[in-house]
Amino acid sequence: MTATLMESGSVVERAGVARPSFAAVLRAEWLKLRSVRSTWWTLVATFVLGAGLTTLICWGNADWLASPEADESPGSFITWGMMIAQITAVVLGALVVTTEYGTGMIRTTFAAVPSRGRVLAAKSVVVAVLLAVVGTVTAFVGYAGGNFFLDREGIGMPLEGDVLRSMFGSGLYLAGIGLFTVAVGFLVRHTAGTISSVLALMLILGNMVNLIPGAFGEWVTKLMPGNAGSGVSTPVSFNPDLLDPWVGFAVFGLEVAVLLAAAYVVVRRRDA
Q1: How far is Cα 2 from Cα 7, in angstroms, rounded to an integer?
Q2: φ and ψ at residue 14, rounded to 5 degrees
Q3: Are 124 and 260 in contact (CB under 8 A)?
Q4: pLDDT digits 0-9 by tens, 70-107
Q5: For the residues of 31-57, what is the DSSP string, one character each?
Q6: Are 202 and 87 in contact (CB under 8 A)?
Q7: How far, CA to CA in Å, does 168 sit from each of 82, 134, 156, 159?
Q8: pLDDT tens digits, residue range 219-254?
Q9: Stated pTM of the model
Q10: Pick from 47, 48, 59, 74: nearest CA to 137
Q11: Backbone torsions φ then ψ of 67, nearest 5 degrees
Q12: How far is C-alpha 39 from the chain's CA centre?
């Protein structure tokens, strides 16, 4: 048997079976992602919610934040919209996977790329990079708009330290949410089920575990994916009892990695 390199490395043929390289699979997944309208509508919604709501919240609360009665830091609001924008990251991560399962096109994808791990990896890379870029840009625009109103009240926040960290952290957090949802999408294979499961875990259960009493409840709260990962996306957390930003994000990253590993095992063993 011979191995022949074809099309400048994009396809490797072994024993008469064409196997696309990872670069070729990556290009194919990017083409699929950018060729559907739902991707662009979701990204527009991410920008509008992330930057628009941050600006709106800072405008509406600037007077109060500057008053002696304020019990919150302006840093808790300067990326406020990104908490809502995570919903659109969940939607995008789900659609990248579950749309193909819903239409049956996933069988065509797996027929063209027999190595299913490459499909999972390519989808993950495309979603993570896209959300990281869009999330970071959105956070910077939201900061510019929100800080304008904070500055007028004399409580503006310079773009340095924890504020600067939260700008890039917002992009990283959205990328992590996208990867988390991609993994759940491969496990659940249903759009509504994937979106509702991730949102329930991130937004509802993450707050409900506060009701668990004692030290056990405190640690469960800290380790919930949404609570652990979100700290890196805000200069000052609304909940000071959570993990430190980078420690929490490392925990979140480990949780995402475990879920992706589970998805890889299931995808290889389960029929499409």
Answers
A1: 16
A2: -125, 125
A3: yes
A4: 888 899 999 999 999 999 999 999 999 999 999 999 99
A5: HHHHTSHHHHHHHHHHHIIIIIHHHHH
A6: no
A7: 12, 11, 19, 12
A8: 999 999 999 999 999 999 888 888 999 999 999 999
A9: 0.89
A10: 47
A11: -90, 160
A12: 14
